[in-house]
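Thread amino acids onto this structure.
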């Protein structure tokens, strides 16, 4: 059984960014061909307690994500980068806190001009925390939100073989 954690750093609960992350998890389930257990974290639901380092719920969530086989970290593009909400969650991890996790950076945005934000901003912090990031991140623009299976499917053609290989190591 594969554990997939989905962490969405959009201040709006049940956002379109969260839908993209869930679609990525669905595609991974199908393409990897193994049953999965999911840990779903919509950080909008936890924002008021995010800076309480002793909060038991966030401590448990942080541990669950750190022990997942795959973790999808999704954020809308804010000021050409990922949200402070996601950054605050990632700050809860110490050095190599995501070691052993295969991470998938995902970002959404209004236009392709911020396409590299997923690679330049989100990917490096995941690597710094010890995660393995075997494939390029996924950046979905607003027009692509109307057909998520197509947008995610195009990305998955190159990404899934790399993700599969990282899980075997």
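Threaded sequence (169 positions):
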């Amino acid at each position: 059984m594969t554990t997939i954690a989905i962490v969405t750093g959009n201040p709006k609960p049940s956002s379109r960014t969260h839908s993209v992350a869930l679609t990525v998890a669905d595609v991974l389930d199908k393409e990897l061909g193994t049953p999965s257990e999911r840990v779903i974290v919509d950080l909008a639901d936890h924002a008021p307690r995010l800076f309480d380092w002793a909060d038991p719920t966030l401590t448990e969530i942080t541990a669950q994500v750190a022990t997942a086989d795959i973790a999808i970290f999704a954020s809308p593009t804010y000021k050409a980068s990922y949200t402070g909400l996601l950054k605050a969650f990632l700050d809860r991890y110490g050095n190599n806190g995501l070691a052993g996790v295969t991470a998938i950076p995902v970002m959404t945005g209004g236009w392709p001009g911020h396409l590299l934000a997923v690679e330049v901003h989100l990917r490096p912090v995941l690597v710094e925390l010890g995660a393995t990031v075997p494939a390029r991140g996924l950046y979905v623009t607003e027009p692509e939100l109307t057909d998520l299976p197509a947008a995610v499917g195009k990305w998955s053609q190159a990404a899934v073989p790399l993700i599969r290989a990282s899980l075997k190591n």
